[in-house]
Amino acid sequence: MTDIRGQSFLNNHPCFNKEASANWGRVHLPVAPNCNIQCNFCNRMYDCANENRPGVTQHVYTPDEAVDMLEKLFARRQDISVVGIAGPGDPMCDAGKTISTFEKVRAHFPQVMLCLSSNGLALPEHVYELAEIGISHVTVTVNAVRPEVGADVYAFVRHEGRTYTGIEGAEILLDRQDEAIRRLKENKLIVKINTVVIPGVNMEHIPEIAAKASAWGADIMNCISMIPVHDTPFAGKTAPTDKELHRIRQFIGQVMPQMTHCCRCRADACGKLGAE
User: Is residue 1 part of a domain?
Assistant: First the structure.
């Protein structure tokens, strides 16, 4: 595992390749606590050891602490193929911490893949830098490709020192996501689109998101169920059933390859999927 760009090596990412998940694990480094958007289903204030959902961590590391943790982890485990940053906020909202962490990880552990998960708002201007560091896989969460739908998903979008709401905020986020994903593919990174499925809000809109993901040239799409969380506008909404999620994946599967083994990882997840 020395060539971070070799295709056989890249296939060992357990989230992007279901077959790899049987043998390979991942570790998420929670170094980015801040976020530049507010989704109506998200509350990062709660943390329970048994709670598996994005935005949750027991501790936020500095870049140096993250490297120290990896030193200890790799001393006892040889099945970790990828190091990712997925929050607990948005990694590119804390771009300095995120990039510094990636640079340190690349210098200390050149054998591992590097992976990023972002909402895309602050991503476009950093794509080339991330590619130069050697990030190979990027997930962008896209919950709407029409602003009127996005206006119901996001409470606000904070960009360049201003806070936007409603359709205006959703338009800005979508434009930035579009730019980011196009740049990622121009730089030959592997891209996954994550979409949180919210009944009554964007569930009927998912085929449009899949069509846009295909037009962007994304490599795979991951439809995940919204988890109702306390003290959020969507706390009283019902998550989609397994049957509904299966139906959606089947319907859009001819347009975009589907990830079906997602565990909705915490920002400090470690190990094989579902084995924590």
Answer: no
